[in-house]
C-alpha cells in the first residue's frame, strides 16, 4: 500500500499527462489488466475494477475518449433522457443520484439530455444516429412508446422507468402504481371517506392505467364513490390544479378524500381548500405519493406512500451496465410501495 501511495504521489507531482502505464505502475498491475479494468471488463474482479478506477481518479488519468471510441466503437457514456417532473419533488436529482451510484467505479460517465413534450423521440434519435452514448435511460413510458420501438428496432441498449405493452421484452424498473392507488383509496375509506378524488396522470402514460385499476379495485371492494377530474392531471401546473381545487372546495358535493400521486398536486389542493376555510383532517383526508422527506417535515401527520426514485435510478443503472456487458436477458423490476401512515 505504501508503494501505491508513493506512486500516486509521484504521478500527481509530474507535469506529464498520466497514462495507462502510470496507473498500472501505481496499482502494481499489468497495463493490459488496467486497460480491461477501466473498460469495465466483467472478467476482471469487481474489487480490482473499483481499485483501478479509484487510483486513476486520484492520479488524474483521463482516457483519450476519441481514440478509445475509434478503437472500440464505444463512447463509455450513458445518457439519461430527462423531461420535467414538477409533480414529484427532487425527482431529477434522485434519479441522477441513483444512476451515479450505479456507475461509480466503472469506466462509464453519465450525461443528461433534456427532453420536451413536443417531440419526445428527437433526443434519442439524435443520440443513436450520432453514436453519442452506449445506452440510454428513459422515463414516463406509454403502452406503445415510440421511443422504445425505435430503440428496439435499432438494437440500442436502454432501460425504461416504466413499462410498455410491447410483446418484445425489454429492461425496465417500474413502481407498482396499481398497488399505490389501491392502498391509498383503502386507507381513505378506513378513515371514513366515502367520495375519493384521484388526480390521475394523462391517459397516454402506462402508469395512468395501472393507477386507475388500483383505484377501481378499492372502489368496488369498499363501496366508494369516486371522481377523476378531466380539467387537470398529475402533470398540470400547480396554479392550474389550485384553480380547479378552489372551485371544487366550495361545492357541497366536494370529495372528502384525495389520492395525490405527487407532492406538488397535494400542495396545490391543500392551499385551495385552506383558502376556502377547509382543513385536512376536518373537511377532507389525503394520501400522497412522496419521493422525498419534504412533506414529513411540513407535517408529519400526512399519510404518505413512498416511491424510492434514487433506488430506481440505481437499479436502472445496474441493469444497463449488465446489458452493456453482454447480458442476454433484460432486467425487470417492480418496486413495491412503502406506506408511511400516521397513527396517533
Automatic annotation (TrEMBL):
Domain HTH lacI-type: 18-72
Pfam families: LacI, Peripla_BP_3
Keyword Transmembrane helix (UniProt): no
CDD domains linked: HTH_LacI, PBP1_RafR-like
InterPro entries: HTH_LacI, LacI/GalR-like_sensor, Lambda_DNA-bd_dom_sf, Peripla_BP_I
UniProt keyword Transcription present: yes
Residues forming coiled coils: none
Stored SMART domains: HTH_LACI (SM00354)
Keywords for the protein's UniProt record, in alphabetical order: DNA-binding, Transcription, Transcription regulation
Taxonomic superkingdom: Bacteria
Protein's recorded name: LacI family transcriptional regulator
Organism for this UniProt entry: Hoeflea poritis
Amino acid at each position: 500500500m505504501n508503494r501505491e501511495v508513493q506512486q500516486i504521489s509521484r504521478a500527481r507531482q509530474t507535469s506529464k499527462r498520466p497514462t495507462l502505464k502510470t496507473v498500472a505502475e501505481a496499482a502494481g498491475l499489468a497495463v493490459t489488466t488496467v486497460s480491461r479494468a477501466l473498460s469495465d471488463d466483467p472478467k476482471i474482479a469487481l474489487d480490482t475494477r473499483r481499485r483501478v478506477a479509484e487510483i486513476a481518479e486520484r492520479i488524474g488519468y483521463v482516457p483519450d475518449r476519441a481514440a478509445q471510441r475509434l478503437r472500440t466503437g464505444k463512447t463509455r457514456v450513458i445518457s439519461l433522457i430527462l423531461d420535467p417532473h414538477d409533480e414529484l419533488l427532487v425527482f431529477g436529482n434522485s434519479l441522477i443520484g441513483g444512476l451515479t451510484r450505479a456507475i461509480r467505479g466503472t469506466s462509464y460517465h453519465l450525461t443528461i439530455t433534456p427532453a420536451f413534450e413536443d417531440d419526445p423521440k428527437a433526443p434519442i434519435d439524435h443520440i443513436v444516429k450520432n453514436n453519442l452514448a452506449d445506452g440510454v435511460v428513459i422515463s414516463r413510458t406509454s403502452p406503445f412508446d415510440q421511443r422504445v420501438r425505435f430503440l428496439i428496432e435499432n438494437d440500442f441498449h436502454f432501460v425504461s422507468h416504466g413499462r410498455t405493452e410491447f410483446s418484445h421484452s425489454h429492461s425496465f424498473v417500474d413502481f407498482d402504481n396499481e398497488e399505490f392507488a389501491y392502498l391509498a383509496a383503502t386507507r381513505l375509506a378506513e378513515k371514513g371517506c366515502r367520495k375519493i378524488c384521484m388526480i390521475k396522470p394523462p391517459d397516454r402514460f402506462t402508469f395512468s392505467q395501472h393507477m386507475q385499476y388500483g383505484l377501481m379495485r378499492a372502489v368496488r371492494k369498499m363501496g366508494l364513490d369516486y371522481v377523476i377530474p378531466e380539467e387537470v392531471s398529475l402533470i398540470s401546473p400547480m396554479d392550474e390544479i389550485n384553480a380547479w381545487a378552489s372551485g371544487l372546495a366550495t361545492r357541497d358535493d366536494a370529495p372528502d378524500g384525495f389520492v395525490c400521486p405527487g407532492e406538488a398536486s397535494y400542495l396545490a389542493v391543500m392551499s385551495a381548500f385552506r383558502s376556502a376555510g377547509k382543513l385536512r383532517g376536518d373537511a377532507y383526508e389525503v394520501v400522497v405519493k412522496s419521493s422525498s422527506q419534504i412533506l414529513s417535515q411540513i407535517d408529519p401527520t400526512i399519510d404518505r406512500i413512498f416511491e424510492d426514485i434514487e433506488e430506481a435510478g440505481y437499479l436502472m443503472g445496474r441493469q444497463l451496465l449488465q446489458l452493456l456487458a453482454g447480458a442476454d436477458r433484460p432486467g425487470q423490476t417492480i418496486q413495491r410501495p412503502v406506506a408511511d401512515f400516521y397513527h396517533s
